[in-house]
Amino acid sequence: MDNSMDKDIPMENVQGLPPLDTSMLPIFQRYKVENEPWIPDFDTWSYLNLRADFDLAAAFAKMFWPDFVEVDGCVILQRNYSPEAFAEWMQRYDGDRRAVESMLNHVHIWDLFLNSPKDVTYSAQLYEFLAHALIYGWKQALQDKHPEKRFVFTLRHGYGPEISFRQADQV
């Protein structure tokens, strides 16, 4: 895959999301066709009302507004942190805290949704939209928890879109 779109995005350049084009959502389109006779103004909220539940909504809230731990000058996604992994990456990267943050905070968008239907084709634009939505949510959560720090977000394309973040300053 072409990596020419790989980029670092300074925190101040993360400005929100473009409108969601629901034509990128094949299952949404199925639900819309099936339910428009009784829900004429079918939209994303209608879709969520029919397909999701409280458990799923709460879990997604934590994905888009995650918890963080601060260890040895590093800010790490709590779900990705373990003392053993942190020590291993600190050794592997010779104490380069920003490289360790980038490694431990990276997430492959494809890996978040392994149970997506195999008979549905999703567009690269949808993956990109989700990557930007996560980056924006993480930015807000990081600003809330660490207002004194600045972060850089990374969007790479290899095994699908991959996002990460690290502090902007060198320690």
Key traits:
171 residues; alpha+beta; 7 helices; 18% strand
Q: In short, what is this structure?
A:
The protein contains 7 helices and 6 strands. It has about 170 residues and is of the alpha+beta class.
Give the terminus-to-terminus CA distance: 33 Å
Count of alpha and pi helical runs: 7
Radius of gyration: 18 Å
Estimated helix fraction: 40-55%
Question: Globular, elongated, flat, extended or rod-shaped: what is the shape?
Answer: elongated
Indicate the structural class.
alpha+beta
Run of helices and strands? EHHHEEHHEHHEE
Strand order of the largest sheet: 1-5-6-4
Strand content: 15-25%
Number of strands: 6
Q: Topology, pairings included?
A:
Elements: E1 7-10, H1 26-35, H2 44-51, H3 54-64, E2 68-71, E3 74-77, H4 83-92, H5 97-104, E4 107-108, H6 109-112, H7 124-145, E5 151-158, E6 160-167
Antiparallel strand pairs: 1-5, 2-3, 4-6, 5-6
